[in-house]
Design goal:
The chain is an all-alpha fold and 233 residues long. The protein has one domain.
Protein backbone atom coordinates (compact mmCIF):
# COMPACT_ATOMS: atom_id res chain seq x y z
CA UNK A 1 0.00 0.00 0.00
CA UNK A 2 1.32 3.47 -0.86
CA UNK A 3 3.04 5.13 2.08
CA UNK A 4 2.36 8.77 2.82
CA UNK A 5 5.17 10.86 4.27
CA UNK A 6 4.45 11.09 7.99
CA UNK A 7 6.60 14.17 8.55
CA UNK A 8 4.92 16.09 5.75
CA UNK A 9 2.38 17.74 7.97
CA UNK A 10 0.91 19.99 5.35
CA UNK A 11 -1.39 17.74 3.36
CA UNK A 12 -2.37 20.52 1.03
CA UNK A 13 1.09 20.41 -0.50
CA UNK A 14 0.55 19.62 -4.14
CA UNK A 15 2.24 20.09 -7.47
CA UNK A 16 1.55 19.68 -11.15
CA UNK A 17 1.80 15.96 -12.02
CA UNK A 18 5.05 16.35 -13.93
CA UNK A 19 7.03 18.39 -11.42
CA UNK A 20 8.27 17.99 -7.86
CA UNK A 21 6.84 20.01 -5.03
CA UNK A 22 10.11 21.79 -4.35
CA UNK A 23 9.95 23.43 -7.80
CA UNK A 24 6.36 24.58 -7.72
CA UNK A 25 6.27 28.28 -6.75
CA UNK A 26 2.95 30.06 -6.61
CA UNK A 27 4.11 32.16 -9.58
CA UNK A 28 3.29 29.21 -11.82
CA UNK A 29 -0.35 30.11 -11.26
CA UNK A 30 -0.08 32.73 -13.96
CA UNK A 31 1.56 30.31 -16.37
CA UNK A 32 -1.48 28.06 -16.21
CA UNK A 33 -3.89 31.00 -16.40
CA UNK A 34 -2.22 32.24 -19.59
CA UNK A 35 -2.01 28.73 -21.05
CA UNK A 36 -5.73 28.15 -20.41
CA UNK A 37 -6.56 31.51 -21.97
CA UNK A 38 -4.51 30.81 -25.10
CA UNK A 39 -5.90 27.30 -25.58
CA UNK A 40 -9.45 28.57 -24.96
CA UNK A 41 -9.05 31.16 -27.72
CA UNK A 42 -7.66 28.53 -30.09
CA UNK A 43 -10.52 26.16 -29.33
CA UNK A 44 -13.15 28.88 -29.72
CA UNK A 45 -11.74 29.98 -33.08
CA UNK A 46 -11.48 26.44 -34.43
CA UNK A 47 -7.73 26.72 -34.89
CA UNK A 48 -7.14 23.32 -33.27
CA UNK A 49 -9.84 21.46 -35.22
CA UNK A 50 -7.48 20.08 -37.84
CA UNK A 51 -5.03 18.74 -35.27
CA UNK A 52 -7.90 17.34 -33.18
CA UNK A 53 -9.24 15.44 -36.18
CA UNK A 54 -5.82 14.03 -37.04
CA UNK A 55 -5.35 12.77 -33.50
CA UNK A 56 -8.86 11.30 -33.48
CA UNK A 57 -8.20 9.52 -36.79
CA UNK A 58 -4.92 8.10 -35.46
CA UNK A 59 -6.67 6.78 -32.36
CA UNK A 60 -9.55 5.32 -34.41
CA UNK A 61 -7.17 3.29 -36.56
CA UNK A 62 -5.81 1.61 -33.44
CA UNK A 63 -9.04 0.53 -31.85
CA UNK A 64 -9.50 -3.11 -30.92
CA UNK A 65 -12.39 -4.99 -29.21
CA UNK A 66 -10.26 -6.02 -26.23
CA UNK A 67 -9.23 -2.39 -25.69
CA UNK A 68 -12.82 -1.14 -25.62
CA UNK A 69 -13.59 -2.82 -22.29
CA UNK A 70 -10.26 -1.75 -20.78
CA UNK A 71 -10.81 1.88 -21.80
CA UNK A 72 -14.31 1.94 -20.34
CA UNK A 73 -12.95 0.68 -17.02
CA UNK A 74 -9.99 3.05 -17.01
CA UNK A 75 -12.08 6.13 -17.76
CA UNK A 76 -13.90 5.56 -14.44
CA UNK A 77 -10.88 7.08 -12.68
CA UNK A 78 -11.89 10.45 -14.02
CA UNK A 79 -15.59 10.13 -13.26
CA UNK A 80 -17.54 12.22 -10.77
CA UNK A 81 -18.26 9.18 -8.59
CA UNK A 82 -14.59 8.23 -8.31
CA UNK A 83 -13.58 11.83 -7.67
CA UNK A 84 -16.14 12.22 -4.88
CA UNK A 85 -14.78 9.10 -3.15
CA UNK A 86 -11.18 10.21 -3.65
CA UNK A 87 -11.85 13.74 -2.38
CA UNK A 88 -13.49 12.32 0.73
CA UNK A 89 -10.34 10.35 1.50
CA UNK A 90 -8.09 13.30 0.66
CA UNK A 91 -10.16 15.54 2.92
CA UNK A 92 -9.92 13.13 5.84
CA UNK A 93 -6.17 12.85 5.39
CA UNK A 94 -5.76 16.63 5.26
CA UNK A 95 -7.95 17.07 8.35
CA UNK A 96 -6.06 14.49 10.40
CA UNK A 97 -2.61 15.69 9.38
CA UNK A 98 -3.12 19.43 9.62
CA UNK A 99 -6.66 20.40 10.53
CA UNK A 100 -9.84 21.85 9.05
CA UNK A 101 -8.00 24.70 7.29
CA UNK A 102 -6.11 22.22 5.11
CA UNK A 103 -9.33 20.47 4.15
CA UNK A 104 -11.04 23.75 3.29
CA UNK A 105 -8.15 24.84 1.07
CA UNK A 106 -8.12 21.48 -0.72
CA UNK A 107 -11.84 21.53 -1.44
CA UNK A 108 -11.85 25.21 -2.34
CA UNK A 109 -9.09 24.66 -4.90
CA UNK A 110 -10.97 21.75 -6.46
CA UNK A 111 -14.23 23.69 -6.58
CA UNK A 112 -12.44 26.63 -8.21
CA UNK A 113 -11.18 24.32 -10.94
CA UNK A 114 -14.61 22.72 -11.33
CA UNK A 115 -16.20 26.16 -11.54
CA UNK A 116 -13.75 27.20 -14.25
CA UNK A 117 -14.64 24.04 -16.17
CA UNK A 118 -18.32 25.00 -16.09
CA UNK A 119 -17.63 28.56 -17.20
CA UNK A 120 -15.49 27.42 -20.13
CA UNK A 121 -18.08 24.84 -21.18
CA UNK A 122 -20.70 27.56 -21.52
CA UNK A 123 -18.37 30.18 -22.96
CA UNK A 124 -16.67 28.14 -25.69
CA UNK A 125 -18.70 26.41 -28.43
CA UNK A 126 -16.27 23.53 -28.84
CA UNK A 127 -18.58 20.56 -29.25
CA UNK A 128 -17.82 16.95 -28.44
CA UNK A 129 -16.91 14.68 -31.37
CA UNK A 130 -19.99 12.52 -30.75
CA UNK A 131 -22.34 15.55 -30.82
CA UNK A 132 -23.45 14.84 -34.38
CA UNK A 133 -26.57 17.03 -34.30
CA UNK A 134 -26.91 20.32 -32.46
CA UNK A 135 -30.38 21.56 -31.68
CA UNK A 136 -31.19 25.12 -32.68
CA UNK A 137 -32.40 25.74 -29.13
CA UNK A 138 -30.63 24.05 -26.23
CA UNK A 139 -31.26 24.10 -22.50
CA UNK A 140 -28.26 25.00 -20.34
CA UNK A 141 -27.94 21.37 -19.24
CA UNK A 142 -27.91 20.08 -22.82
CA UNK A 143 -25.38 22.70 -23.85
CA UNK A 144 -23.11 21.80 -20.95
CA UNK A 145 -23.17 18.13 -21.88
CA UNK A 146 -22.59 18.72 -25.58
CA UNK A 147 -19.73 21.17 -25.03
CA UNK A 148 -16.42 19.39 -24.66
CA UNK A 149 -13.87 22.00 -23.62
CA UNK A 150 -12.37 21.31 -21.17
CA UNK A 151 -12.66 17.59 -20.40
CA UNK A 152 -14.04 17.07 -16.91
CA UNK A 153 -12.52 13.59 -16.69
CA UNK A 154 -9.08 14.95 -17.56
CA UNK A 155 -9.43 17.72 -14.96
CA UNK A 156 -10.60 15.41 -12.17
CA UNK A 157 -7.98 12.72 -12.83
CA UNK A 158 -5.27 15.38 -13.07
CA UNK A 159 -6.28 16.95 -9.77
CA UNK A 160 -6.65 13.73 -7.76
CA UNK A 161 -3.57 11.89 -9.01
CA UNK A 162 -1.53 15.08 -9.25
CA UNK A 163 -2.28 15.79 -5.59
CA UNK A 164 -1.40 12.21 -4.66
CA UNK A 165 1.93 12.45 -6.53
CA UNK A 166 2.84 15.40 -4.31
CA UNK A 167 2.09 13.50 -1.10
CA UNK A 168 4.25 10.41 -1.60
CA UNK A 169 6.91 9.77 1.02
CA UNK A 170 10.59 9.76 0.01
CA UNK A 171 11.55 6.19 -0.79
CA UNK A 172 13.36 4.18 -3.48
CA UNK A 173 9.95 3.69 -5.10
CA UNK A 174 8.82 7.30 -5.04
CA UNK A 175 9.80 8.10 -8.64
CA UNK A 176 8.05 4.98 -9.86
CA UNK A 177 4.94 5.84 -7.85
CA UNK A 178 4.91 9.39 -9.20
CA UNK A 179 5.36 8.08 -12.72
CA UNK A 180 2.38 5.77 -12.13
CA UNK A 181 0.26 8.77 -11.10
CA UNK A 182 1.31 10.67 -14.22
CA UNK A 183 0.65 7.60 -16.36
CA UNK A 184 -2.86 7.27 -14.94
CA UNK A 185 -3.55 10.92 -15.71
CA UNK A 186 -2.37 10.39 -19.27
CA UNK A 187 -4.31 7.16 -19.74
CA UNK A 188 -7.57 8.61 -18.45
CA UNK A 189 -7.15 11.49 -20.89
CA UNK A 190 -6.46 9.03 -23.72
CA UNK A 191 -9.65 7.10 -22.95
CA UNK A 192 -11.73 10.22 -23.57
CA UNK A 193 -10.36 10.48 -27.12
CA UNK A 194 -10.51 6.72 -27.64
CA UNK A 195 -14.16 6.55 -26.57
CA UNK A 196 -14.98 9.47 -28.89
CA UNK A 197 -16.14 11.63 -26.01
CA UNK A 198 -13.59 14.43 -26.34
CA UNK A 199 -11.08 15.97 -28.69
CA UNK A 200 -7.41 16.02 -27.73
CA UNK A 201 -7.60 19.78 -27.11
CA UNK A 202 -10.41 19.17 -24.61
CA UNK A 203 -8.19 16.78 -22.70
CA UNK A 204 -5.28 19.23 -22.73
CA UNK A 205 -7.63 21.93 -21.45
CA UNK A 206 -8.71 19.67 -18.58
CA UNK A 207 -5.11 19.03 -17.60
CA UNK A 208 -4.33 22.74 -17.60
CA UNK A 209 -7.31 23.43 -15.31
CA UNK A 210 -6.03 20.68 -12.98
CA UNK A 211 -2.56 22.26 -12.94
CA UNK A 212 -4.12 25.60 -12.07
CA UNK A 213 -6.18 24.08 -9.25
CA UNK A 214 -3.14 22.26 -7.85
CA UNK A 215 -1.14 25.47 -7.94
CA UNK A 216 -3.95 27.16 -6.03
CA UNK A 217 -3.65 24.55 -3.29
CA UNK A 218 -0.01 25.47 -2.76
CA UNK A 219 -0.48 29.20 -3.19
CA UNK A 220 -3.33 29.41 -0.69
CA UNK A 221 -1.45 27.13 1.71
CA UNK A 222 1.51 29.52 1.67
CA UNK A 223 -0.80 32.49 2.28
CA UNK A 224 -2.46 30.64 5.16
CA UNK A 225 0.92 29.80 6.72
CA UNK A 226 1.96 33.46 6.52
CA UNK A 227 -1.24 34.56 8.29
CA UNK A 228 -0.71 31.98 11.04
CA UNK A 229 2.92 33.05 11.48
CA UNK A 230 1.94 36.73 11.76
CA UNK A 231 -0.81 35.91 14.26
CA UNK A 232 1.61 33.90 16.40
CA UNK A 233 4.03 36.83 16.82
Amino acid sequence: MTQIHASQTDSTRACPPTRGCSSCPSGTLWIWVVAIGVLSCLAASGSVSSLDQQVAWWVTTRRAPFLDVFMKILTFFGSSVWTALALAGMGVYAFRRVGPAATRLLFLSFLTGAGLEVVLRFAIPHWRPDAALLASSMTPWVRFNLAGFPSGHAFRAGFVFGWLAGQLAPSPWRRLQQFSCVALIGMVGFTRVYLNRHWASDVLGGWLVALLALSLVRSWRQAHERRVAVAAR
